[in-house]
Design a protein that fits this description.
Elements lengths: L10 H51 L2 E2 L16 E2 L2 E3 L2 E2 L1 H9 L3 H11 L5 E8 L7 E4 L8 E10 L2 E10 L1
Antiparallel strand pairs: 1-2, 3-4, 5-6, 5-8, 7-8
Length: 171
């Protein structure tokens, strides 16, 4: 009697093939998850950085809209469209800074974040003299130690002195 070896599957060959396939498949899944996680983190960081850059530029380069927003007693969505601290590009207004500092409470903080386009993030703005002495101003909430923070700084003039406007956007 002749036996044919055609179409016979040896269990050890099959087992080795399945193990190799599962190893390749699990390696691919692990690599894929790590890549997706990394891309998600980088995308989140990019949006946070872009938001910080936009806020810093808006505060330092624009008077806001309307340009006399600091004189409006009660700020709402209907009477203010954007907020800026400059009388002219890179020249800050002491009056606008003081008005912003008056808006530190919770409801106004949420409104200011919305007007600046940072509703998704928390915000802190620091204005400090670049050299010498002078007043420093801080608006918003300081990031916690474990926060993911984006920082953008711009130089400007305030009362004839060079100041650094640091914008922290964090989650």
């Amino acid at each position: 009697m002749l036996t044919s070896s055609k179409a016979q599957v040896y269990s050890t060959d099959f087992l080795v093939g399945v193990v190799a396939f599962l190893f390749v498949l699990s390696s691919f899944i692990i690599f894929w998850n790590a890549t997706v996680t990394r891309i998600s983190y980088l995308e989140s960081e990019r949006w946070r950085d872009e938001t910080a850059r936009t806020v810093a530029e808006q505060l330092v380069e624009s008077p806001g809209y309307p340009s006399h927003w600091e004189q409006i007693s009660f700020l709402t969505d209907t009477n203010i469209r954007s907020l800026g601290l400059a009388d002219e590009r890179n020249v800050l207004s002491q009056t606008k800074i003081q008005r912003l500092l008056q808006l530190q409470d919770g409801q106004n903080y949420s409104f200011i974040k919305k007007v600046l386009g940072t509703s998704k993030y928390d915000l802190e703005v620091k204005i400090s003299p670049l050299v010498g002495s002078g007043s420093s101003y801080t608006y918003g909430r300081a990031p916690t130690a474990d926060s993911k923070v984006s920082l953008v700084s711009r130089l400007a003039l305030l009362d004839g002195n060079i100041v650094e406007v640091s914008t922290y956007v964090w989650e």
